[in-house]
Amino acid sequence: MMSGRHIARTLILTAALGAGCLSWLRFAQAQPPGPALEQASERDHQLMMDRLGIRKLRPAPGADTSAPVHANYAEASANPFPVWPDPLVMKHGGAVTTAKMWRQQRRPQIVEDFEREVYGRVPADVPAVGWQVTASEDERVGRVAVTASQVIGHVDNSVDPSISVEIPMMVVKPARHAGRMPVLIMFVLGRPAFPAPVSPSPEAIARMNAAMKEALARQDPSLAEVFRSRPAWQPIPTPPFFPPPRPAGDPLQQLLADGWAVALIDPTSVQPDNGAGLTRGIIGLVNKGQPRKAEDWGALRAWAWGASRAYDYLAGDPDLDARHIGIEGVSRYGKAALLTMALDERFYMVLVGSSGEGGVKPHRRNFGEAVENLTATGEYHWMAGNFLKYGAADAEGGARNAGDLPVESSELIALCAPRLTFISYGSPEAGDAPWLDQQGSYMATVAAGRVFRLLGAKDLGVGDDYRNARKPPIGTGLLDGQLAWRQHEGGHTDVPNFKYFIAWADRWMGRTSQPEP
Question: Strand, helix or coil at 91?
Fold first, then answer.
């Protein structure tokens, strides 16, 4: 039986964690890895280099121009490889002229190249995921009454019981809705929490406080006098009647007010975001704790796999519209969102926020973030082992660079066609660093447009000359087609573009956008 001290401590910790666990998790996950983690990543990185016969990699450029090796920000020298792979030319040189040729012949070629050389393959024997609702409550987000449910995906770990993978997801649905609702899966940092937890009644909190004081005084009788002299103090403060307002432009509130459902998922619950974690998570589970092979999937592909498993669950919910499920992410999660959309054709729409190298930014552009940043120790785990070859300065297979890659980011965007694809960036002046190469990302979006048109969809409507394309002014949206672009006035976020994304997606779904309350 628990002692009075244990009971009191448990109640206090439970209250504190309920209010602050998400903030703590976000803080903890934002901290730099410790030396042991770095050393384990370096060992795994070196093992892959040895496996590929790479003796030396080119150094990764730094974002700061004062660094000894730094990124290029001069447009005059940004395009050393101006001719990119053509998504509508077969490997044998024949032109792709019909939607059938694209789907049956060319698209599989591009997918194969991306899986083998860039992001890695999902193993055939990846285990199943079983989903279970563990908690649910009625809440209010802004003025919208909602039902929020905590759902846990348990990955079958019978192949290696020492590795456990559980995927927590928070599903939030408007309580009042007509028909099935569209859904946006959003990648978030940290375990997703209930959006607006409902506190116990003041009467219930008063009973809890009385029980805690009694337990503490029983454990330490001297505390009885402390409580008598401070009668107004309570271990658990009574919360205000109205919950604090959500941030201005809050995407969750905007989506719910418009009649969408939202599913929040932390990608790092699927696969850790470091090289040391490659023997853990879903990648490590499939490999039974052993290091990867050169074609094995990296973290981006694993995160995309996790989003697809979330889709499996959501598609079976009778309140939700399985035909209209989308995916969203920013920065590294923007890369994963784009990859999810490209390779899982069940997804209807994607919002790709400030994704940079490995996402929308062209590999062949020498501007800001480079291929070498994804072959160096810090971020190599996002990619397949084979991707390291393209940062090699000295290797058994010879030196290679971005120009040797068989695919380009424009083709990753093209794999999303003809489905709704919204490319979002922010302003460098507000913090969306030029490192992300907004101009190059616009060029890649333009280059993908031919595939959208071939499949009967609308592209940006600016022509096909990606080499000379210049992005429109900040705040100018190209939102008339299924392929869309908008660079907003804010920083490294996609929040300012959410109202445009919602209205754009609603239009294509035949829905009427509802103004936020």
Answer: coil
* Total-model pTM: 0.90
Domains of the chain: 4-31+203-229 (no CATH), 76-195+244-509 (3.40.50.1820)
Helix (H) or strand (E) holding 203: helix 202-219
Q: Is the peptide bond before 418 cis (omega within 30 degrees of 0)?
A: yes
| Cβ–Cβ under 8 Å, residues 184 and 326 | yes
At 130, which amino acid appears?
G
The DSSP result for 224-255, as a single string, is HHHHHH-TT--SSPPPPSSPPPPPTT-HHHHH
Helices of type H across 31-136: 35-52, 99-101, 107-113
C-alpha distances in angstroms, 448 versus 112, 205, 270, 287, 464? Answer: 18, 58, 30, 35, 9
Return d(Cα 371, Cα 367) in angstroms, integer: 11
Cα separations in angstroms, 203 against 9, 10, 228, 359, 414: 21, 20, 20, 52, 58
Amino acid at 142: G
Q: How far apart are CA 162 and CA 348, in angstroms?
A: 37
Task: With beta carbons less than 8 A apart as the criterion, state whether 375 and 391 touch.
Answer: yes
> Measured between alpha carbons, how far is 24 from 21 in angstroms, rounded to an integer?
5
Closest to 413 measured CA to CA, from 371, 373, 455: 455
Burial of 295 (0-12, 13-18, 19+ CB in 10 A): middle
Q: By C-alpha distance, which of 20, 250, 19, 237 is closest to 143?
A: 250
Contact between 141 and 170 under an 8 Å Cβ cutoff? The reply is no
Cα separation of 186 and 337, whole Å?
9
Q: Which residues pair with 139 in a beta bridge?
A: 146
Cα 99 to the center of its chain, rounded Å: 30
153-212 per-position pLDDT tens digit = 999 999 999 999 999 999 999 999 989 999 999 999 999 999 988 888 888 988 999 999
Please, are residues 90 and 432 in contact by the beta-carbon 8 Å criterion? no
Confidence of residue 24 (pLDDT cuts 50, 70, 90): very low
The 3-state DSSP class for residue 393 equals: strand
- Residues 489/509, Cβ–Cβ less than 8 Å: no
Tell me the pLDDT tens digit for each residue of 352-384.
999 999 999 999 999 999 999 999 989 999 999
Using pLDDT thresholds of 50, 70 and 90, give the confidence band for residue 515.
Answer: low
